[in-house]
Design a protein that fits this description.
- The two termini are 26 Å apart.
- Strand 1, helix 6 (93-109) and strand 2 (113-120) form a beta-alpha-beta unit.
- By secondary structure, this protein is of the alpha/beta class.
- The longest helix has 17 residues, at 93-109.
- Helix 18 (400-407) packs antiparallel against helix 19.
- The protein is globular.
- A five-stranded mixed beta sheet has the order 2-1-3-12-6. Strands 8-9-7-10 form a four-stranded mixed beta sheet, with helices on both faces.
- 41% of the residues lie in helices and 13% in strands.
- It contains 21 helices and 13 strands.
- The chain has two domains: 7-198 and 357-412, Periplasmic binding protein-like II (D-Maltodextrin-Binding Protein, domain 2, 3-Layer(aba) Sandwich), CATH 3.40.190.10; 200-356 and 429-475, Periplasmic binding protein-like II (D-Maltodextrin-Binding Protein, domain 2, 3-Layer(aba) Sandwich), CATH 3.40.190.
- InterPro entries: Bact_solute-bd_prot1, SBP, TAT_signal.
């Protein structure tokens, strides 16, 4: 799997490795943090290779489920002789057991393909594999966060998949949210298949609403209605305080889509080459949220978050309203601390927007086993593949209801997610080009000064614009 990289490209990869490894954490995109457990070598060693399974994923049940599934058709042939493909991903020990089971049954269907799996923490993943790219060696298949792929394409690290898709009549592209594919496309070609895809929703604590005698949120809600209700639901002080809404909006890759675009504002321009966070529309919106923090105490301050010892106010029942991705529903379904519900994000004067975000698997350009790699990701990311793996936020819409049922997620909420993805979820406004992490890192401490009351919103946003603007030269796509 050797590749010939120029000195210029090696330097670019080194910069990427230094600047991008924790991009997901910047946007409240907590899926990767949940997956970033310790490497799973110990967990894998405990699995019987002839009957892989554990208490969470018993082998007999996995075998029965696998046998009930019909795998999609493709005209890509299996290798004539034994080959080995390397699959590099992020996972935790429990999920890796399911991956091991998938690999076991995949090899039964494709006996000439051996699978070598490499699992790393999310935080160290990009640094590790960019170093390998600079050294001329990469795995055949790699996990990709949505904010990485455009950089990978620019550096000729990943291969387009369109020829394989054309040879696979069972691909069913219409089963994938079109808005969520934009992160992995360039020049009309698709370079990654989504591993997961979800919009953001408005979550609410039913117990807090019941205590206050207020009606639950629904699709008629505006942002003004949400804020008005959040003020009514704010009560108490100190460690027992209940916040009407959490968290306080901060600079993040999806700040535009969730909070600014409903009012006609943006963090960056649509092509991510100009800063727009100090426009009148953005200043007005961010001033509103800053007032809710500093004047009304509706959202948690930095000091209050420290008082809670970094416990998430929403997950601990200290917040009545919360906007986050559909991927948190698996965790919510398991907790017993409070009853919860979910509905559409509220609309502003400029409309209703929800980011469709996710990750993908890519085939590396230097792979010598692209056919075998395609066969693997094709089945792994097919609707039957999702049904077997039973993950939250499957990219294929046909897998949402079966996955929700298996994970204890209410069917009406799963239907809501599908509706949002089909209706108004978008990648517009979600930062994904190379300067993303640098821009967020530069903006965040300035905005935190505003959250502490040291500067007003307009001053903070002007400072952010001045600091971030020069960084965006990296986002010019040739």
């Amino acid at each position: 799997m050797d590749t010939n990289l120029s000195r210029r490209r090696i330097l670019a990869l080194a910069v990427a490795a230094a600047s991008m490894p924790v991009a997901a954490a910047c946007g409240g995109d907590t899926r990767q943090r949940k997956q970033a457990a310790a490497p799973v070598k110990t967990g894998i060693q405990a699995i019987d290779p002839d009957r892989p399974g554990n208490d969470t994923w018993p082998f007999a049940a996995a075998e029965s489920l696998n046998d009930s599934l019909t795998w999609p058709e493709t005209n890509v042939a299996d290798p004539a002789a034994k080959v080995v493909i390397t699959v590099a991903g992020t996972s935790d020990v429990i999920a890796e057991v399911r991956n091991t089971q998938f690999d076991y049954f995949f090899k039964k269907r494709h006996p000439t393909i051996e699978i070598k799996r490499e699992t790393s923490t999310f935080d160290g993943f990009l640094t590790k594999y960019m170093a390998q790219a600079a050294g001329g060696k990469l795995p055949d298949i790699m996990y990709n966060h949505y904010s990485w792929t455009q950089n990978f394409i620019s550096n000729d690290i990943v291969a387009p998949l369109d020829d394989y898709i054309a040879r696979s009549p069972g691909f069913a592209r219409d089963d994938l949210p079109e808005a969520g594919l934009a992160y992995f496309e360039r020049g009309g070609k698709l370079y990654g298949l989504p591993t997961d895809m979800a919009p953001k929703l408005l979550f609410y604590n039913k117990d807090r609403f019941d205590e206050a005698g207020l009606a639950y949120p629904d699709e008629t809600w505006t942002i003004e209605k949400m804020i008005e209700t959040a003020k009514k639901l704010t009560s108490g002080s100190g460690a027992t305080k209940v916040y009407g809404f959490s968290p306080t909006p901060q600079p993040a890759p999806d700040l535009s889509t969730v909070f600014l675009m409903p009012y006609g504002g943006r963090f960056l321009s649509a092509d991510e080459t100009q800063v727009q966070i100090n426009s009148p529309e953005a200043v007005k919106t961010m001033t509103m949220w800053l007032d809710l923090l500093l004047k009304d105490g509706v959202t948690p301050s930095l000091a209050e978050l420290q008082l809670l010892e970094k416990v998430d106010p929403w997950k601990s029942g200290h917040a009545a309203l919360h906007i986050n991705g559909a991927w948190i529903m698996t965790e919510l379904a398991k907790q017993k601390a409070f009853a919860w519900g979910a509905t559409h994000v509220p609309k502003g004067p400029g409309g209703r927007f929800s980011p469709a975000v996710g990750s993908a698997l890519v085939i590396t350009q230097g792979s010598r086993q692209k056919d075998a790699a395609w066969l693997y990701i094709y089945e792994y990311l097919s609707s039957p593949g999702y049904r077997f793996r039973q993950i939250s936020a499957p990219a294929r819409q046909s897998a949402w209801l079966p996955s929700a049922e298996a994970l204890g997620i209410p069917a009406d909420v799963a239907e809501l997610v599908k509706e949002i993805l089909a209706d108004y979820a978008t990648s517009d406004g979600v930062m994904r080009l190379p300067a993303t992490k640098k821009a967020v890192d530069a903006a965040k401490p300035i905005w935190e000064r505003a959250m502490l009351g040291k500067i007003d919103a307009k001053t903070a946003l002007d400072e952010i614009a001045a600091k971030v603007g020069p960084l965006l030269a990296e986002n010019t796509i040739a």
